[in-house]
Amino acid sequence: MQRLLNAAVAATFAILLGTAPAAAEELRSTPESEAQVLLSFAPVVKASTPAVVNIYTRKTVAVRNPLMDDPMFRRFFGDQMRGMPRERVERSLGSGVIVGSDGTIVTNNHVIEGADEITVALSDGREFDAKLQIADPRTDLAVLKLDPKGEVLPTLTLADSDAVEVGDIVLAIGNPFGVGQTVTQGIVSAVARTQVGVSDYRFFIQTDAAINPGNSGGALIDLKGRLVGVNSSIYSRDGGSLGIGFAIPSSMVRSVIAAARSGGRIVRPWLGANGQPITSDLAAGLGLDRPRGVLINGLVKGGPAERGGIKVGDVILSVDGHAVTDEDALSFRLATHDVGGQLTLGLWRQGKALEVTIPLEAPPEVPARDKRTIDGRNPFSGITVVNLSPAVAEEIGRSTGGATGVVITEIAADTPADRVGLKVGDRILKVNEFAIASTKDLVDAIGARGRAWALTIERGGREISTILPR
User: Of 169, 240, 414, 421, which is most buried with the most CB atoms under 10 A?
Assistant: First the structure.
């Protein structure tokens, strides 16, 4: 079928260009076989769609009446409000892909996030309860597991997403708007698309195959019926498809599935270096033909990068032969490798290209995290903090930049910390006159009496100072 499609496309272009009358005559000739008459995507669709499932989730959420924040309202109506419903059930719909005959399913994390119950419905009407094996908000991927109870399940094979090229024909399968399983066709519009802020690892396959709400977690397949990506998001002004959809490449999908099967914990390699993008001016000064790669501006002493021979001022241009265009591409390439073994990096140093080999190691948890949850009558009540280390930085998706200190990892809803605007990822630098170097320092500072709370935090590379009321 692929050969026939290629021939038809080539002949069509020849007609349009007027350069191949023989090809035009061949295209107009009577079909010689039934296959030529019935040329369509139906065979690959028929083989692939059974492995794409609908995912129904159910979760119970607390409902808070905003009037209950008014002391006067509580005083006069509090007793009457006790009988009103305080919870509601939310249901959502998405798609998923069966990738293992043992019942392993991959979908988007945002499809199942917070779900109390997950139901998987196959295209043939069978339904199964599923359990969450692993959720990875940083990649927006999740792996589910159902018990097939001896029944045969259809599956999709993962393709090599690095072999996908712009112009390849792809099919998107999912359940848009809950209308039922739907197949759309398009081409790969771009590969290695970065700067798309829908996950921490921003590296996507872009396609013009129609993707709409409900398609999330569904399959993007090639003409051999192999999974090249998991549909994740769209660019849209009104919620509908504008022909700009994004899929998480199968190479990342494969790494998350492997983590789920090996115990459900994701540990990604640590470079032990900090970098910055290459501007046009930097490229000219470094002797590069164009802006590309990542300029190393800091190294962690004793880290994998330093031990492998990387130096400050080097530019990383490739990872195992795959070009690195920016920091997002570098993060993606590292994240698709397992801890253990080695990695070859292509560098640009003082006008020359060279290669180095670095070990693939897990980020160290030094210092120990010493996790603490703050409570009591203070504006920090409701936060969970840990000591910052490379391991913690990897978990929460931030660069240490060589920094240490205390970082917020959780904030309970509707607590003093939530109301004053503290955020997960904030690094607490100073409370009143106390410099905060550890979680113990923070606890001690909060315990000291004072008339107000003078707070300094680091957020997004900027220091912010404020006064919080007692």
Answer: 169
| Residues in CB range of 421: below 8 A, 6 or more apart | none
Residues designated catalytic: 110, 140, 216
Rg value, the chain, Cα: 27
Spatial contact of 135 and 84, defined as CB atoms under 8 Å apart:
no
> Which amino acid, residue 87?
E
Strand extents, DSSP E, 115-244: 117-121, 127-136, 141-146, 169-174, 182-193, 204-207, 219-221, 227-234
Residue from 434, 435, 427 nearest 463 by CA: 427
Q: What tokens appear for 128 in the block? A: 């199964």
| Residue 261 three-state SS | helix
CB atoms within 10 A of CB 150: 5
Whole-angstrom distance, CA of residue 441 vs CA of residue 439: 5
Pick from 349, 361, 284: nearest CA to 310: 349
Q: Which two tokens stand for residue 53?
A: 């499932």
The one-letter code for the residue type at 400 is T
Confidence (pLDDT) at 60:
77
Residue 119 — very low, low, confident or very high, per pLDDT cuts 50/70/90? very high
Residue type, 168: D
Structure tokens at 394: 């990897």
Distance CA 417, CA 435 (A): 19
Interval 148-200: pLDDT, tens: 988 999 999 999 999 999 999 999 999 888 788 999 999 999 887 765 555 55
Angle subtended at Cα 168 by Cα 163 and Cα 174, rounded to the nearest 5 degrees: 100
- How far, CA to CA in Å, does 270 sit from each of 68, 250, 420? 47, 21, 34
For tokens 């690095």, the residue is 162
State whether residue 196 is helix, strand or coil: coil
